[in-house]
Amino acid sequence: MRGLTTAQADDVRKALLTAERRSGLRFGLFLGEPVGARRHFAERLHAALGEEADNAVVVFVDVTGRALEIVTGESAKRRLTDSACRLTAMSMATAFSVGDLVGGLLYGIAALGEQATARR
Fold first, then answer.
1. In the CATH scheme, what is the code of domain 6-118?
2. How far apart are CA 37 and CA 77, in angstroms?
3. Measured at the alpha carbon of residue 60, what is the angle toward residues 118 and 49, in degrees to the nearest 5?
4. In whole angstroms, what is the distance from residue 80 CA to residue 120 CA?
5. Each residue's pLDDT expressed in tens, for the chain with a length of 120 residues
6. Domain spans in the chain, listed from the N-terminal domain onward
7. Are residues 101 and 6 in contact, defined by beta-carbon separation less than 8 angstroms?
8. Which helix (H) or strand (E) holds 56?
9. How far is it, in rounded angstroms, from Cα 12 to Cα 92?
10. So which domain of life are we looking at (predicted)?
11. C-alpha–C-alpha distance, residues 13 and 38, integer Å
12. Closest residue by Cα to residue 52 from 82, 85, 32, 75
């Protein structure tokens, strides 16, 4: 995970695994610049999960471009509504805006995992 220290990357990986275990969904994170349009790039990352995409959530953060996209598969969408993803994205963006990239990531991943678990 570019731009993170080893300890920060480990914390983010643990958060992803915890969200997966609790919710039963597959979680992925990509930090970097998009190739092409941001939303389209995030959707391509999600589609690259193949058979897992239906039950997956991909969080794409363009740190340089100061942008965030959350993409959910069809089954995942039943448990993570667009409004829940939007609210989580706003909270993450607030943390990012004050320079807290890792805190925003950890909060967002945990929040998405908990929301998906609650609607299980």
1. 3.10.310.50
2. 22
3. 75
4. 10
5. 677 999 999 999 999 999 999 999 999 999 999 999 999 999 999 999 999 999 999 999 998 888 999 999 999 999 999 999 999 999 999 999 999 999 999 999 999 999 998 776
6. 6-118
7. no
8. strand 56-62
9. 14
10. Bacteria
11. 23
12. 75
- Contacts of residue 32, defined as CB under 8 A and 6 or more positions apart, other chains included, come to 2, 62, 63
As given in the structure block, the two tokens for residue 90 are 């706003």
Element holding 50 (H helix, E strand): none
In 3D space, the residue among 111, 109, 115 whose CA is nearest the CA of residue 28 turns out to be 109
Q: The pTM is what?
A: 0.93
Helix 82-97 to helix 101-118 angle, to the nearest 10 degrees?
Answer: 160
Under 8 Å between Cβ of 71 and 47: no
Two tokens, residue 108: 């967002």
CB-CB contact of 75 with 57 (8 Å) = no
Q: Please give the angle made by the CA atoms of 7, 93 and 90, to the nearest 5 degrees.
A: 130
